[in-house]
Specification:
The chain has 168 residues and is mostly helical. The protein is built from five helices and three strands.
Amino acid sequence: MKKQLIAGLAALMLAAPIAAPAQAEVKVGVIDVQRILSGSSLMKALEAAQKDVMDAEKALLDFRQKKLEELQGMQKQVAEGKMTQEDFLKKQRQFEDEVMNKVKSEQGRLEKKKEEIRKMKDGLEKDVEAAVKKVATAKGLEMVINKQMVIFGGTDITQDVIGALPKR
């Protein structure tokens, strides 16, 4: 009985390595996310929108700086007796109102632009994810990993994903 049990276990141990290669191999794809994003027309539009926001914010800062310099010039005139303190205070309030009105009007426009940027980012993420799924399914890949995380192996599907992205 003991010999039969040992013989049975030995047979199982010998058969186990034969069964291992029968397991299906996992197909892994890799993508270069940076290349996908840089090739996307939506990413180019996103970068342009972000540049517009930065330019508008810089223009607002420049406007405030210019007004501040004008006020400092008027302070010198008051010190030299070329302008009265009352006139200076009146101009100061006027400048503050100008700056506040400009800030309020620009703030609304900038918030709308920033919301557009957020929507564009969300859309880009969804587009890339959908393109990756489409290509992975078509190529029979079970897993797709960022190329930067892989040292060796995997099927590069970056160019296919770029081609599958919607043209906007």
